[in-house]
Amino acid sequence: MQKNILDRKRDKMTADAQLIEHMMNPKNYGTMENADASGMGKNPTNGEKVAIHLKVEKQDDPRITDIAFQAIGCTTTIVAGSIVTSEARDIHFSRAEELVSTTLGMLENQSPEDAACTEMVALALKAALDTYTEKQKDPDFSMFSYHISTDCTPKEEENNETTV
Amino acid sequence: MKQLFKEVHEAWLATQFTGFMSQTQSRQELYEFSNILFKHLTWLENDFIKNNTTYNYDIPQVPIRMTHISHMINNIIERLSSIESQLNSCKDKHISFRMASDLNYIKAALIKLPEEEVEECFKAEKNYPNIELSEEARDALTIFLFEESYKEYELIMVYNYSKANSDNAFLNRIFQILIDESFFHLRSFGQMMAEMGILGVPRSLMEEIYKFDNLEQFLKDGIQEEIGAKEECRKLADAVSSSSEHFAAFFAFINNQENYHIALMEEALEHIKHK
User: Fold this and answer.
1) Hey, how many other C-beta atoms are within 10 angstroms of the C-beta on B27?
2) Is B228 helix (H, G, I), strand (E, B) or coil?
3) Using CA atoms, how far apart are residues B135 and B123, in angstroms rounded to an integer?
4) pLDDT single digits (tens) B130-149
């Protein structure tokens, strides 16, 4: 069901009740004080970006207990952020990695504009997960920030926010 | 005082968006009260700046979905009472006295507003009263209204931040005009969203949107965005023209207003270059 919504092309976006609901009341939108990790997905061509913040319960397979996102982007990005963060709430990292992969795997069925928005959200989640893992080794680590790319491969960013 | 600032910001939006729901004369009254609350926001902001206190425009989502306007009115009154209880956190007693006086009057006036059913503002039916729109036109209009209502809110806050943090009278005149223009657009779009059953308060702004380093670049980008907005208005006017002459004329009007915004930003840009 969620996949169907994300697959809609923007110019033909049928604004059904569920989609409108995400536009009127984006879920999990906002900042998060004392986040355990944050990550960023960016579109380097137009400056749009998505930040995802996580609260995490420490376990062998850590669990996302709270999640928030913010975006500089269009309505499609907000809808994608609302859906993906709702899916990611209360799941373990292994499941969250699957969610990222599944979301990135859907991009080829979308219009370029929608794909860019969805990819930005998925990469922000990936960056937040990776940041948490990195912070377990280096508590002073800031955060990962990934650029969207047509082949969905995270590229290393030039500034000091990024690795991989 | 940061909590006070946040709550005034939320109360301003709650009051403004309740105004969009009303179909009676209450709308104008709610608009006036929202203007006063916005003014309070600017007073507190100026106090932050005077005292070199860092601040931001972060707020949580403001919920407004109700069945009756009295529910929102009660919600606003509760918000105003909470603000009153925190006025001591503002050290400038002139500000807190003026705010207390305004809030006292507003609360008393709000209680008297007549009841209205407002459920239709949130039904997501996307029908505009007395205007038959094709599905394509309705979808285009829906997306446009979500995008642009956020954009107008963003512009109000960006120009407000720029104005508050600048002592350049020439630029501040331009910023104030742009704030006023964005209020007009936000109100136009907000009323349309309420009519179509898709009303929602815009999301909060990321700090870097209004705390930018380079005003010249911001204005250049802003001009490009206005040109983009003009194109969106033109496309929308085309999409709805076969369904509604009224809408086609409205979007042509908005499109032409963007020319004025571009001229103002170009004026500001020239001023910066020759400063």
Assistant:
1) 19
2) helix
3) 17
4) 788 888 788 888 888 999 99
CA distance A10 to A75: 10
Predicted confidence (pLDDT) per residue in B141-175, tens digit: 888 899 999 999 999 999 999 999 999 999 999 99
Report pTM: 0.88
A21–B60 C-beta distance less than 8 A: no
Beta bridge partners of A32: none
What confidence tens digit (pLDDT) does each residue in B61-111 have? 999 999 999 999 999 999 999 999 999 999 999 999 999 999 999 999 999
Residues whose CB is less than 8 angstroms from the CB of residue B130 and which lie 6 or more positions away in sequence, other chains included: none
Question: What's the full length of chain B, in residues?
Answer: 275
The second-level CATH assignment, the architecture, of A2-137 is Alpha-Beta Complex (3.90)
By mean pLDDT, which of B35-39, B83-87, B227-231 is the weakest?
B227-231
Ordered alpha helix ranges (H), chain B: 2-21, 26-50, 69-85, 93-111, 135-164, 169-196, 207-210, 215-241, 245-273
Alpha-carbon gap: A68 to the closest alpha carbon of chain B (Å):
11
Chain A residues whose C-beta is within 8 A of a chain B C-beta are 10, 12-15, 17, 20-21, 23-26, 29-31, 51, 70-72, 74-75, 78
Q: How far is CA B275 from the centre of its chain?
A: 31
